[in-house]
Here is the input.
Amino acid sequence: MVGEAMARCLSYAKRQPEARIWPGTQWKNAVLLEPNQETEHHTALDERTAWFYEAVTLTAGMTTKTSGQGQVYLGIQKDKDGHWPQGGNHYTLRIPPNPPVTQFWAMTLYDAETRRFIDTPHGLAGLDSRRKLVADADGSVDLPFGPEAPAGKESNWLPTLPGRGWFAYFRFYVPTEPYFDRSWSLPDVERVK
Here is the structure.
């Protein structure tokens, strides 16, 4: 139990400065590892524990730092106000226009305790830019999360379960330079009150 609690803390409350992606947001780099856990100054045991508590594999493509190659995995464990997301609440994420990807982006929700896809009666845990999502006039896309779909936003909705906490990954498949130079950024997930 102590080991799992430690792994959960290392995963959901990353403390490494390099975990922060954009100043002032809750988004964090989900993968703080290289394919080899040895770094110049230490063995990345905390980073390895954090990633493998959440996931089951690691490839060189998942640790890319090169525009036009691999994937980037960003994690969100807290909302804009610094609270852990709860399945009984409603939230929204606005994805700004022109996400920096060559292939597609994806947003996926996971149960905070099981670390598996959220298991709802809707059979839906994620959405991606290959779907027919409703976009705003400026090209941004609003994704609502919650136990019920907001009227008129059903195609963009990701269901959550009351009584269950969740976290999410935003994936960039073949990220481009605006991700790496940080000229494009995601805002935080916000609770709708």
About this structure: Helices lie at 2-12, 45-54, 177-180. The chain has a mean pLDDT of 93.
